Amino acid sequence: xxxxxxxxxxxxxxxxxxxxxxxxxxxxxxxxxxxxxxxxxxxxxxxxxxxxxxxxxxxxxxxxxxxxxxxxxxxxxxxxxxxxxxxxxxxxxxxxxxxxxxxxxxxxxxxxxxxxxxxxxxxxxxxxxxxxxxxxxxxxxxxxxxxxxxxxxxxxxxxxxxxxxxxxxxxxxxxxxxxxxxxxxxxxxxxxxxxxxxxxxxxxxxxxxxxxxxxxxxxxxxxxxxxxxxxxxxxxxxxxxxxxxxxxxxxxxxxxxxxxxxxxxxxxxxxxxxxxxxxxxxxxxxxxxxxxxxxxxxxxxxxxxxxxxxxxxxxxxxxxxxxxxxxxxxxxxxxxxxxxxxxxxxxxxxxxxxxxxxxxxxxxxxxxxxxxxxxxxxxxxxxxxxxxxxxxxxxxxxxxxxxxxxxxxxxxxxxxxxxxxxxxxxxxxxxxxxxxxxxxxxxxxxxxxxxxxxxxxxxxxxxxxxxxxxxxxxxxxxxxxxxxxxxxxxxxxxxx
Length: 496
Prior knowledge:
This protein is mainly alpha-helical and 496 residues long. The protein has helices spanning 18-33, 54-65, 88-100, 111-123, 139-147, 195-205, 221-230, 261-266, 271-279, 295-301, 316-329, 332-345, 351-356, 358-368, 375-386, 394-401, 406-418, 425-439, 443-455, 463-470, 472-495, and strands at residues 5-8, 37-40, 104-107, 153-156, 163-168, 172-177, 185-187, 210-214, 237-241, 244-245, 312-313.
């Protein structure tokens, strides 16, 4: 195999998990670094566990992350079909090859028989291994049972006492003793291939040169390597990525928060931030590299020898921090493409507004983005620019609306702003600075209550940026409303 060919082969039994996303990314990086090809193969033979919308979700998640495969669904290629459910002829031919060569056999044992044998071995304190009961059936016995309409499985014949050495690019030489395995099933009684068998047949047919996948598949590798040898196929190189663990070093699950790509998308992560974060889970760019890396930068320095053997620990706070960095640094038009759906979803702007009022929306997004970490936070930070404020921050009211002379300060601030004709950042700030000088007060004394009056919040972009974006009319109205509220609020507090 001259060309590097790798594959990402998800099973559509659920949405794309961050572990699967990282596997896809590392395959993609490796292919691009080595001028190779990434094949996307959908392993959809586990009929009982298939979820109807999983395939679409997996494809959408990969595309959202920016992973572009070279062959597979929606792309085609010379080695299709790329859905295992459409490759039954390949598996039947390979199984027949093994049967004819005496390397596999039909097994007619029923589920009841197997369960009885499993229970017997359990009582003897043994792990279950199939007892090879059907291994030496004669040709006549096999034909007779097939003629009766019995539906057998097909099992591979394992060599007794054999040891298999798996050469793993990340983990080195890993030894497996075949005493721990039995004659495992390669074709089920319903005619569908078992996982390990389908992988081997497809990896060979698709000329896969490197199998880069999660550590949990390492235990499957000796079986697959045995099948490669039994079928006289060339064995690809293997590389097993370390696990991703929860902060408490347990297996990552729903109880630790978002775990699928779609969940991170829904909570307001940018795809570039999630890609950057996943890249650093178990891989190091080496000394002298910044933590923030584009896919192009990663591809330039990517190699499997920089992949860690030890488990990576999932840290949602690190991801959210990184996401905030990307929100701040991303080109504004590009950021708006990701942010607008959140503004519309939260009913902050309508789809009509998003088209007609785009310049203003961009200006607001640009103003608030340095103070937020997710697109959900960004949307909420934009709200008071588009909607009337309906209340004031509770702690802010106590701290700023009850301070001495606050009504007079806001009233004078309103008068100074009313005199500003060109309501720009510079001119509004100039007016307030003149008022501060005249009253001989510190800026905080008037800036904080004014911010609360205009936004309903104690945190916002710079006050004068907020004023310029809100415009003169809305600033006047909100200051007047706040002055009225404060008078009532303070009277009620005095009575209490």
